[in-house]
Hints:
14% strand, 26 helices
Amino acid sequence: MSPSQTPTSALAQQDTLLRRNTPVTRASKLRAENLASLSSSRTQPLEHNATQPAPRKLRVAVVGSGLAGLTIAHILASLHSDNGHGDQGIEVELFEKAHKLGMDAASLSVTCPCIKCAEAAGRKDGDPAHEHVEGRMDVPMRSFFPEYYPNLVRLYRAAGVKFHDADNTLACFDVSFDSASSASSTPSTRSGQDAHIELPYLSSRSYKVSANHTITLPDLPPLSLINPYPFGRRLLGYYRIARDYVKMLTVSKEFMTQGRMMEIGKDPSEWGNGIQASLREFLVNGGYSHDFSAFFVPLFACVCTCSFERMMEYPACVVLEYVARCMPFGRMQFVSSGVREVTESLSKNISTIHYNTMIEKIIEADPSTSVSSPIILIDSKGVRREFDHVIFATQANQAAAMLAGQKASKPLPKPFVTSIDKGDDDSNYGRMEEHELTDPETPKDVSIENIAKGHPFYRQIKTLSKFPYERTQVVCHTDTSFLPKDPAAWRLLNIAKSTNADILASPFDRVTAELKQQQSTGYSPKPFADTDSEFQGRKGHDSGIASPDSLSGSSTPISTASTSHNSAMATHIMNNTATSLGTTTKFLQTTNPIFQPKPETVISSAWFERAVVNPESMSAVDELNREMDKQAKRLLAASSVDSAATAITDRVWFVGSYAYPGIPLLEGCVVSAVQVMERIMAAEPAHRLAASVTAPKESFLKREEPMRDRRLRRQEELQNQPLHKSSASAVYFKTAWKDTLEDERIWEEQERARQDEERFSKKSHFSSAVGSWTSNVYVEVAWMLLLYIVAIVQWWSVFMLESVGFDGSRWALA
């Protein structure tokens, strides 16, 4: 369809478009007016003139096809001109360096081991006793809690992606090694033959206590009157865990509902020193027990996919906000048919996708030779393409390298796959040898010291360089030696750590370790105060905790994961969440393996880089969002004069999990994409971009409309606030939890309108009432304790049954 077609002719073809497009929201006028407050004589969006031809379609390039890239490409391709009455307003081209969409690039279909499938494929390794399976494994595991991911849930619902609950069962245990050489070797060289899996020091099962609530409680070992010590010791440990768990819930929910999450640990009356408290400071100075830390820290190291050093660097407010929103009633969710369904749904309306294409350079177009678009992208094949906007949906370090015109150093190898019907060229996959030789340390791809200050993207590169990353390996296999020896102790998520791991990454313990490792070099680390006992070294109430920076001289200490693997190893039993995998063979996915599975059991191996959070990266999030807001304002101001006069830097945008406050997860991908879409809509008023007027009301960005109005009002209220109170992080930690309740309330209202059954309506009204009650933290804690009493009755029944030799699993959702 030509850009010059009239709205009438465009409407004649919208039925076809709407079957492929997920529309966005209403006209961009509100957003434009909000961003246009440059001065008392701010520029207004251009009014449509029917006598003038409609402007040409905008051309937008999206680099990267993870969830952030797919979301921004999907919603931009759904925008229409003329306030939703005209033709599709943006032509989107998606660039992906891999052979398939990035969100699903490492996932795989499992070859069925049954004898019929083996014979059909010409194999001789068929198992006549094996059931037929047609499973697919998402790599890495894509789980989420709706309470923390409201925008992701809304996106999935609008796209028709089905997801289901999984029981929050877990087992925590230690791994020891038979020889000192194995204990000190790197994870890539450790053999499972030297590893000894100890009994779980904590395992749990889930208990359903109401129609909408499930509570996870720890398992107790059978009581032996001959030797009651193990039972008593475990019971004492569980008491400490329960006590500290309730204390943390109370603190986190109280600070969250008061909008003071970022103030945790700052007040001197709360052992604070006026600066943002780290997770380590919160746990140590808050008096949390070792039993609780041994459970809590590995669990969140798995959530954040990072080493214990990086976990202890996390600002406490980031972790506690997750706790306040997801616990104690949150339930883990999985996409029922795998993330391939997500990629297929979101990519349907993207007209052009360039696979196996790496962007190497971005330059400004010469107005004397090109007047169509102001930006030129140059790929690895030398092809030049022109665009009006470029959106980087890659990692921050990769975006910095592309803007600097550099190649990423030490790139990660392609996923390695064995015994799989690959379905395409073998060159799309790497070799196992490459994975064994991969350096787990994340290199710093771009050094800002090597970038000239006159570089057009100097400011952006400097900001992007502040986001730290850690590398992690994900191995799919069938080696059950990664699980506890007793199959009855296997859980959905099995978390292990080395017996010599330092979960608190204590500076005192680090000094001791460095002293042992470097005695031969004559290295003498800085002494640590209060070293007369481990308790004093860890506590540090009066003098404060020595920062790792004082020992390493770096604001972002290098992880020791490559040498000691001081991190949690998480093994997920895929059969528990994908019934299509059957039960005959346990298909496992291990993240951060601290020893290697048996070679014959390996199905695939893939390396990833995950963003982690520290105070510097939190400031960088605010800096990045402020700069993109300024870009939108400058573009809007220039739109009434000459759009070609704007700088190239004003047309480059960034989305991704790292570009949003909180833990870098899938929710940040969706929200950052929506925010950049709004900025582009506001910066291009001549196009009058909006969702199609005939879009269904349950589509993603039609449902986004009331949320957008709320955000606009909030921004107007914060315009005159100090910078630290109006930053992206400050707004997020003050209001994100309210947005979650509001999102669910709107969803329930839509469900009640769609379903008139009285029983469902009562249930929804009850849920809404509970949502209003829980705005008071004390009422919520009381409600939590009441449901816990119900769960404990079930829990005690299971314990009694299992103590006399019966199976109590059917009484729990194990």
